[in-house]
């Protein structure tokens, strides 16, 4: 008798479930080292950066790879105050007009802020000490600087900062290329 009740209940549930339509909640766009990159993640990245879906997908893959390596290093541990500041920075960027809709998904924004903060700490720890700028030969004769020389020093410092930023960018690009070369990346969705 019990099995008849259970069977009837099961059939009733199957009938009800047959009536309810399946609704796609999210979609997997890529799989990186056996972990999915979801459409919702890509849309959030799109909202924050203002880039195309394809660019946001590539950025999400890169972020996933960098975070996986960065989180292993104890020097990249974040504090709640740092995470809150990073989160507020993202919210402010979104409120400035990129997409207010993305600001509603606070949990996803907090996760993104934590990932980005961890990656930045990793870059500061691993790459920034390697950045060296050789000072270019600067003129020292008359007419090579303003009368007090401050303008020339300021310009030289800006050039040095730009060169340091370019060197750091090149190191990060090389790191990401190495991460991609050793990762298993499979794209599952080709829809625009």
> Rough shape?
globular
Number of strands: 3
Distinct helical segment count? 6
- The overall pLDDT average reads 81
Biggest beta-sheet profile: 3 strands, antiparallel
The CATH topology corresponds to Triger factor/SurA peptide-binding fold
What's the CATH class, please?
Answer: Mainly Alpha
Oligomer state equals single chain
Query: Number of folding domains?
Result: 1
Q: What this model shows, in words?
A:
This protein is mainly alpha-helical and 192 residues long. It has one domain (22-129, 158-187): Triger factor/SurA peptide-binding fold (Orthogonal Bundle). Helix content is 62%, strand content 6%. The protein has helices spanning 2-19, 39-49, 53-70, 80-98, 106-126, 150-182; strands at residues 28-32, 35-38, 185-187. A hairpin with a 2-residue loop joins strand 1 (28-32) and strand 2. Helix 3 (53-70) crosses helix 5 (106-126). The protein is globular.
